[in-house]
Design goal:
- The structure is a homodimer of 396-residue chains.
- Chain A is an alpha/beta fold and 396 residues long.
- Chain A is 44% helix and 13% strand.
- The first copy, chain A, is built from 13 helices and twelve strands.
- The first copy, chain A, has a seven-stranded mixed beta sheet, sandwiched between helices.
- In chain A, strand 3, helix 6 and strand 4 form a beta-alpha-beta unit.
- At the A-B interface, helix 1, helix 2, helix 3, helix 5 and helix 6 of A face helix 1, helix 2, helix 3, helix 5 and helix 6 of B.
Chain lengths: 396, 396
């Protein structure tokens, strides 16, 4: 009944579901407060109250035919303009509504982008470890990922040299995810600059267009002095896929956008292609109420300090026990070296102590595991004895 | 920059945009009240007030972490259960939450369905005239439409004989759209029964599974005695793609579902495949606030009488002038025979009298044109002199 292409994907889903079911079983036996679930990326800081108030006000005052009706497939002009204004304010750019296409979150933003540029057999560069859903997105359009190996020595920065060696005439894009899931690393300006220069040379050498697809749902979640570079300042053919899922704690509402900068090749046709892809993929447009709410809330942010404290305490706690971790500069993930090669087996050990984590292999980063710390601070504190018990076996 | 696959789709979009721009030009010259726009399918009956009140109450009372957070890719259990209950109440069925997957509208419902069953080279039967976006959906997965010719003698009922002749081992599905866009026809039980029997024989003969994909966004918009048959009562391998866009006037909000009946082959795996496809296509889940609102509003309906009056008045008016029209039993479309073979040229004649319509060729139904009467009643009344002026040239 379902296609041969889908069957392995569905079986993969079942595996995740089994993990989820096991977590529920543990919670039933030990009580949910005694299970420390670091496996999910669901924000636990509530959305700002101003956003709720904006939604209520829109429902009370807006003409329902406009509020709930179709608009251009690219989204409401006022929302697109508000986003352009916000970006211009922050980056000194000159974007307008015409550079923005509203989407049902970053996942959908990446899909309409890929639908626009990819054909069967095309190649897209990804830097391991990475969010494996990218592979599924690419498979929708018959394209394949070309994986660049992880670079632990550099704190998991993208390996520009290996990237260059693997670019071919079929390379249509390079995916960057900054701040990074799963490592929590933030690529600084000098890394982006190097990568951009290398891609410019490659474009010239091959006479092709190679896009940077920059997946930036964690852009606003950065700590201390870390800064997320605005990639169009470094490289013209950049497409930014953004979501309010993390910055405003709205993952279920499916609202985000693609930014197509005016210096990118054929940007006007590209914007038209993205809106066409919104329609072709049946999404038609980003949900209308969410769009109008965002038009009023581009300046709001989630409580970053909350995640920063969780990340710092988890990092301090685990390194003190002997674990090697990447110090997170952003997002809400801690990337920890597994004391044994078999990261899945180590995650099972943690699970036996009621700690749920994700093996690095699930991100093409074997030998590591990911802790997602968008959890209560109590979860971080109370999980420490469990980590300690396991750590004692390895770091004695 | 954009792919060869996308370029013709984007150019097609430009053509629609040009028509839209021309309409705006006419409105600027003659005043918007003197332009009669029957080209769009955007409901003009406002969403029920109860729905707005439900959304406001949810925003005020629901925990924001639940309200705006991720849920299962298939949707909130309470929403899926409320929909199952509503269907059971209406059709005497025994559906549960497990048979429903929430989607970002019917277009997205069709895409996750197609993503689940189609592989490159597969064939899907469609009955002309039909909503041409289906072709784009199929092209996403490398599948091709097999078009059954229009059957004006039967009032544009599906031609079961031609369907049978065109089914091959590659046929994965038959798309039905009932009530129909663009004809406004409603296929009655005896037609569905015939079609179901023919498909059962074909499944047996070929040893394959052939799904009916039933696209039913207009299901609640039916007039007089017309009844929309519940296809799973006739055929097990039915997948219903539904949207609240028309029944609750929420097209911009992107909320709908797929129903997978428990008598369909491998339905549990199919439901899992649909939720996986929600994730793979980057939509992840239907927007969460809209889902929770629907859970409280399954019994609400839009003002059907409003559309019925528009349809009846337009039908009476145009037939009195000499036009041949299909008497609409549902949806909000009137399908009119063009007095000349070149339907696009005739639509241009109407446009010169400030009436905007859509040529039948845009639905693979040449020689006809479509009037979308989700407009104010004044538009129907005030457009009559324009129609009369053009009619006088042909029906004297």
């Amino acid at each position: 009944m379902i296609s041969n292409l889908m069957r392995p994907k569905v079986n993969g889903s079942s595996a995740i579901r089994r993990m989820f079911e096991e977590g529920k079983k543990l919670a039933a036996v030990y009580g949910p407060e005694n299970v420390y679930d670091f496996s999910l990326g669901n924000p636990n800081v509530p959305a700002p109250e101003e956003l709720r108030d904006a939604m209520i006000d829109i429902l009370k005052t807006e003409d329902p035919l406009k509020l709930h009706g179709y608009m251009s497939n690219a989204g409401f002009d006022e929302t697109r303009q508000a986003i352009a204004d916000d970006l211009n304010h922050r980056y000194g750019t000159v974007y307008s509504a015409a550079n923005i296409v509203m989407t049902a979150g970053a996942g959908s933003a990446m899909n309409i982008t890929m639908r626009s540029i990819l054909e069967p057999g095309d190649e897209v560069i990804v830097f391991a470890p990475y969010f494996l859903e990218y592979n599924n997105y690419l498979s929708n359009y018959g394209a394949v990922p070309v994986v660049i190996a992880p670079h632990p020595e550099s704190g998991f920065m993208p390996d520009v040299q290996e990237m260059c060696a693997k670019i071919t005439p079929k390379t249509k894009a390079v995916i960057i995810n900054n701040p990074n899931n799963p490592t929590g690393a933030v690529y600084p300006a000098e890394v982006i600059s190097q990568l951009a220069d290398a891609l410019k040379s490659k474009q010239e050498e091959l006479g092709t267009v190679i896009y940077i697809i920059s997946d930036e749902p964690y852009r606003e979640l950065v700590y201390g002095d870390a800064k997320v570079p605005h990639i169009p300042d470094f490289y013209n053919n950049t497409l930014i896929c953004y979501s309010y899922s993390k910055s405003l704690s709205l993952p279920g509402e499916r609202i985000g956008y693609v930014l197509v900068p005016p210096q990118s090749d054929g940007w006007e046709e590209f914007v038209l292609s993205l809106s066409t892809a919104n329609r072709m993929l049946g999404i038609v447009n980003a949900p209308s109420l969410q769009q109008l709410a965002i038009a009023r809330c581009t300046g709001l942010r989630s409580n970053v300090a909350f995640y920063e404290r969780n990340g710092a305490d988890l990092y301090e706690g685990l390194t003190a026990m002997g674990f090697s971790c990447v110090k997170p500069d952003g997002a809400f993930y801690l990337w920890v070296k597994s004391p044994i090669d078999d990261d899945a087996a180590f995650c099972d050990e943690l699970k036996n102590e009621r700690v749920l984590s994700t093996p690095g292999s699930a991100f093409m980063g074997p030998g590591y595991f990911r802790l997602s710390y968008c959890v209560s601070h109590e979860t971080v504190v109370n999980s420490m004895p469990s980590f300690k018990k396991v750590a004692a076996r390895y770091f004695g």
